[in-house]
Amino acid sequence: MLYKRAQLLTFNILHARKEKERANIDCSHLIGCADYKMPQVMRCYGALTFSNSLASKVDNEVELKEEPKEEVEIRANVLKVIDYIYKNRQKILADEY
Q1: At a CB cut-off of 8 Å and minimum separation 6, what does 32 contact?
Q2: Which of 55, 60, 27, 62 has its CA nearest to residue 39?
Q3: Which domain, by its residues, includes 67?
């Protein structure tokens, strides 16, 4: 949890500098943040699928307790998808056009 927050803070600071100072900021060293929005988007596009039990909890907005197995699995799989996209970005972009 602390690492996720550190990543978000770093990204937010760099983004603010980029906007305020018009600085050329490179965020490529930061991995994606596995916040709650990323799994929503990935699930919507079919990049992530949940078990029926987890899908029901998510769809019914049941809050997951901090650090349970399900939350850890969601976050870990989001990072796997982000890594896959990063490693295959050229092919993915070529397939789009």
Answers
A1: 38, 78, 79, 82
A2: 55
A3: 31-97
* Residues 26 and 49 both lie in one domain: no
pLDDT of residue 7: 65
Tell me the residue length of the chain: 97
Give dist(CA 84, CA 72) in Å, integer. 18
- How far apart are the C-alpha atoms of 64 and 70, rounded to whole Å? 8
pLDDT in tens, 12-67: 787 788 888 888 877 776 766 656 677 888 898 898 998 898 889 888 888 887 66
Calpha distance 17→12 (Å, rounded): 9
Phi, psi of 61 (to 5 degrees): 55, 40
pLDDT of 93 = 75
Domain count for the chain: 2
Query: Do residues 83 and 41 share a domain?
Result: yes
Average pLDDT over residues 78-85: 84
